[in-house]
From TrEMBL:
UniProt protein name: phosphomevalonate kinase
UniProt domain GHMP kinase N-terminal: residue ranges: 76-158
Pathway(s) served: Isoprenoid biosynthesis; isopentenyl diphosphate biosynthesis via mevalonate pathway; isopentenyl diphosphate from (R)-mevalonate: step 2/3
Domain GHMP kinase C-terminal: from-to ranges: 257-320
C-alpha cells in the first residue's frame, strides 16, 4: 500500500494586521512550525479523519470537515475530474495547534486547507509551486465565503517569513460567478509574496496568553474604525519594518514595531487584552520590543530580543504572568 506524509505549520503576524484586509496593503508574517500532519494512502473508498473530531467521514457533506472537503473539490477541479472519479484514498490528519482544548490562534483552518492540497498533490503526483498552492487554497476559502486577507495562506504555503501584499477579494469572488476555474487560477490576482531574510541578530519569542481571541462581533467593530489615515500609517510602518529587517537596522525595526503597536492600540484598545498588555510590558527596560499579533484580544503576542539578558528576563516575566512561551527562533548570534 502506497502511503505519503505531508506537514504544514502555523503563522503569526509581525506587522500589518487589520490593514491587510484592504486590497494593496502589506503585512509581514512568520511561519510557526507547530505542525499539522497529513497521511494519505490508497483505500477502497474515500475516508477522511482529523483528530479535531472523533469520527471519520467520506465525501458526504459535513460542516466540521468543510475545509478539507472543499480543498478536495478544488483539487478535483484542478485535475479536470469529478471528485467521485478520483482514485480513492484515506486521509488522516493529526495536530490540533492547541493545548487543553484552547487554540493557539496560529491558523488551523488555513493550515488544514493547505495540508489537504499538499497531500492530494503528492498522492496524485502533481508538482505544485508554493504560489500555486497559495492560489488553490485561497480559491477554496473564497468559495466557502471566507473573507480573510489570505495572508495566513501565503505564509503557510511558503512556510517562511514573508511580506504579503493583499489582492482585491471582491474582484476574485466576482470571478467565481463568470469565469471558469482554469481562467481564475491562471489570472493575475495582483498580490505579491516575498520571502524575507532578516539581517538582524535577534530572537523571536512567541507568548501564548491562554485567552481566546476577541469575538467576531468585536473584530467587525474594530474593522469599522479603519480609515484611510490608519491604512497609510500602517503601510508606511510595515514597509519600514520590512526594510529595517533586510538592512539590519535595529533602531528602525524597534521604532516601526512600536509605531505599529501604538496604531493598533489607538484603533481599538480592546485589541490589547490585559494579558497582551502584560506580554508587551514585559519588554520594558530591556533591549527588546514586543507587540500583539493578529486580531488581538487574546491568543498570542510576540517579542524580539537583541541580547541574551533580555531574552532570559522576558521569559522570566512571562512565566510570572502565566504567559506560555510556545515557540522561539533566532537569527544570527548576540552576546
Amino acid at each position: 500500500m502506497t502511503s505519503y506524509q505531508v506537514q504544514t505549520g502555523g503563522k503569526l503576524y509581525i506587522a500589518g494586521e487589520y490593514a491587510i484586509l484592504n486590497p494593496g496593503q502589506t503585512a509581514l508574517l512568520i511561519n510557526i512550525p507547530i505542525k499539522m500532519t497529513g497521511q494519505i494512502e490508497d483505500h477502497s473508498d474515500f475516508v477522511i479523519y482529523s483528530d479535531m473530531f472523533d469520527y471519520c467521514v467520506g465525501l458526504e457533506e459535513d460542516k466540521n470537515y468543510k475545509f478539507i472537503q472543499a480543498a478536495i473539490e478544488t483539487m478535483a477541479l484542478f485535475m479536470g475530474k469529478k471528485v467521485t472519479d478520483l482514485p480513492a484514498f484515506k486521509l488522516t490528519i493529526n495536530g490540533k495547534m492547541e493545548a487543553n482544548g484552547k487554540k493557539y490562534g496560529i491558523g488551523s483552518s488555513g493550515s488544514v486547507t493547505v495540508l489537504t492540497i499538499k497531500a492530494l498533490a503528492v498522492f496524485y503526483n502533481l508538482k505544485l509551486t508554493k504560489d500555486l498552492i497559495f492560489k488553490l487554497a485561497s480559491y477554496t476559502l473564497l468559495k466557502l465565503g471566507d473573507n480573510g486577507s489570505m495572508g495566513d495562506i501565503a505564509c503557510i504555503a511558503y512556510d517562511d517569513l514573508i511580506s504579503y501584499r493583499s489582492f482585491d477579494r471582491e474582484m476574485v469572488k466576482s470571478w467565481l460567478v463568470d469565469k471558469s476555474f482554469e481562467e481564475i487560477i491562471q489570472a493575475d490576482w495582483h498580490y505579491a509574496i516575498q520571502v524575507i531574510k532578516p539581517q538582524l541578530a535577534m530572537t523571536l519569542l512567541v507568548g501564548w496568553t491562554k485567552q481566546p481571541s476577541i469575538s467576531r462581533e468585536m473584530i467587525i467593530r474594530v474593522k469599522s474604525k479603519i480609515n484611510q489615515s490608519f491604512l497609510e500609517k500602517i503601510e508606511k510602518a510595515t514597509l519600514i519594518c520590512q526594510k529595517s529587517l533586510e538592512a539590519g537596522d535595529k533602531n528602525k525595526f524597534i521604532t516601526s514595531l512600536e509605531s505599529l503597536s501604538n496604531l493598533l492600540n489607538n484603533l481599538d484598545q480592546s485589541i490589547y487584552h490585559p494579558k497582551l498588555r502584560q506580554l508587551k510590558e514585559a519588554s520594558l527596560g530591556l533591549d527588546s520590543v514586543a507587540k500583539s499579533s493578529g486580531s488581538g484580544g487574546g491568543d498570542c503576542g510576540i517579542a524580539f530580543t537583541f541580547t541574551k539578558q533580555a531574552e532570559k528576563e522576558i521569559k522570566t516575566r512571562w512565566a510570572e504572568d502565566d504567559i506560555e512561551l510556545i515557540y522561539q527562533k533566532s537569527w544570527g548570534t548576540y552576546d
